[in-house]
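Re: weekly structure request thread

Next one in the queue (86 aa):
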Amino acid sequence: MSDVHAIWFVVLAILLVGVVLLAVGLVELRRRLPALRAAGTALRQRRGQLMLVAERTGTLDLELAAARSRLAEVRDELPLAGRHRS
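Done, posted below.
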């Protein structure tokens, strides 16, 4: 009979330790939650900034391609003697 009591004692001790660890984890999460929310907000803002930079870079790439195309057209229109070798 004492073996059964010892087993129940061990099981209850394990459950108690688990409950205590869970409670400590929840308290720690609650303590860190404002910082986690602020970090998430900062990450979303940074992602938005990076998206704007990426869009602007794409626009600049298109403008550069158009300028190069126009330069090639102008170069083709130049008389042969007026062309500079590049």
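The chain has one domain: 2-77. Residues 2-77 form one domain.
Next request, please.
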